[in-house]
Amino acid sequence: MKGRLVLAVFLLSNILCYSVKAQILTREDSLNAGLDPNHRNVILAGYGEAKVSVDQNLKTANANLTRSVLFVGYRFTPKITFFSEMELEDARVSATGGGISMEQCVLKFDLNHSNYLLAGLMIPRIGLLNENHLPITFNGNDRHFVEQMIIPATWREMGVGYYGSSSSLPGLNWSVALLNGLNASRIGFGQGIRDARFGGRDATASNVALTAALLYYRGGFRLQASGYYGGSAGFTQREADSLRLNSGLFGTPVALTEANMQFRHNGFVLKALATYVYISQAQKLNAAFASNAPQVMYGYYAELGYNLLQGTRHKDKQCNIFTRYERLDMLAAVPENGIDNDILNQQYLITGITYLPIRNVAIKFDWTHKVTGEPNPAMIFNPSPNAPPYLRVNNFYQMGMAYSF
Amino acid sequence: MKRRDFIKTGCLACAAMAAGSSLASLQSCSPMPVYKATVDQHQIIVPKTAFLEGETMKVVRSSATLYDILLVAKPNEEPRALLMSCTHFSNALVPNTNGLNCNLHGSQFDLQGAVINGPASKALKKFTVSTNEQNYLINLKNN
Ligand code: FES
């Protein structure tokens, strides 16, 4: 108990420390004026999140600086801008974990007031959290599980994207992007396509992916649908032949589709998303890599939140209570040579409070209830009591903080 | 219901919902064309005739600002002009009938320029608007 108290004090002191720094560092004001077409400027900003999580089954607690991200932008000319996000995950990098990576590193070329191109390491418009992943914008200490496990946010690849919005139909936006493809050898059991992302590092570009999205704002609604179709076998012809995989631009393809909506009204926020992934040649992947790749994965969630401070004089504060239900299956269909295992059929109920004393800082409390399917007995190599029995149900109690400046 | 059937039904239902709500919204939609304005001595001049019957908003483009300006002129309200630049990272905003949205990280602003949804934390830059018989005059100074 004492330990948890110390951790709580540690996290709170971090919140204070970061919010003070944020005021000193941000230079966005100078860009916001936007009056001088020849204005040049640097943007320095960032975001981060940390949490303490108590695992009810294991009766342990874990504290982690989940991520700390530094954002640097530079406007070269009124029409050419640079954006980058560098992320440090889990506070430090060692042989056992942590990571430092670029989340995006793009040049933005404005074609006119409503159309632009992005080129470089970019985050395509897929799902709700991929593009808009700042931790002060979502409830709960964890990013939505469906958007971690089925849509592998933050999903970034090298590519070129065209973004536009319609002036004749206000609120309608679109995007199309050509990206490098995925890595077939890393598609597998329990990971889905998450490990198959290249994230800008030495990606194979002899296999490519196309993604497109339509996004529409109307009243309190935000509606989006997007699709992704890409090859995963960027091997030489000789390698592909020996692995019996189809290579080429769209060889051994992965297809993903999703639709999501948000509705805001009088302090209420409703969010929902559904996604479906189809890997038509999962059987070939299993034969080549024995990875137990899924043929189908799917997931969906719905969240209802309400700001308790809505309508009060505390306009800059928010106290959001929320409940979210998530359902996903990372092995919804297995090819003939695959092995089914229902532990990847998962449900989550998350409920909690997100308090924002100012818009850039969030303090989060949540309870996460996780239920999985039964493990396949054939996959239990070390049965109880040699190993602890598999527990289908677990609860996590989490407290954390997030900031963005 | 089998898992496969569930997935199919679920996807169809989602598609139908999305299509339905989009169509419902489209019915009452009107375009928000851009008005290319002239600038005179730190004032952007927008003739009142630029607003068609029933129109209450206009996207105003001029050589004086890097970003467009949303001019809101509703009956019984003071006209106001908002710089369509997100106060988070200066991304150009997209207007709709209820407010302005930023596609980069999802900030939303209402038609007063106030933040509805972060990560932006500051209200949009506003310009004072005066009127004469024929025009709205967006004052780029003294803001
Ligand atoms: S630039 Fe608009 S939300 Fe980040």
Structural write-up:
Chain A has five helices and 16 strands. By secondary structure, chain A is mainly beta. The longest helix of chain A has 24 residues, at 2-25. Mean pLDDT of chain A is 88; it is low at 5-38. By secondary structure, chain B is of the alpha+beta class. In chain B, 17% of the residues lie in helices and 33% in strands. Chain B contains one helix and twelve strands, in the order αββββββββββββ. Chain B has an eight-stranded mixed sheet with strand order 1-4-5-6-11-12-3-2, with no helix packed on it. Chain B has a four-stranded antiparallel sheet with strand order 7-8-9-10, with no helix packed on it. Classes of the chains: A mainly beta (405), B alpha+beta (143). Chains A and B meet through helix 2, strand 1, strand 2, strand 8 and strand 9 of A and helix 1, strand 7 and strand 10 of B. The structure holds FE2/S2 (inorganic) cluster (FES). The site of FE2/S2 (inorganic) cluster (FES) has 11 residues of chain B, from loops.
Q: What is the 3D form of chain A? A: globular
Judged by helices, strands and strand pairing, the structural class of chain A is mainly beta
- The percent of residues in helical segments of chain A reads 10-25%
Beta content of chain A comes to over 45%
| Count of domains of chain A | 1
> Which compounds are bound in this model?
FE2/S2 (inorganic) cluster
Q: Which oligomeric state applies?
A: heterodimer
Q: What keyword list fits this structure?
A:
heterodimer; A: 405 residues; mainly beta; Porin; 5 helices; 12% helix; B: 143 residues; alpha+beta; Rieske Iron-sulfur Protein; 8-stranded mixed beta sheet; 1 helix; 12 strands; binds FE2/S2 (inorganic) cluster
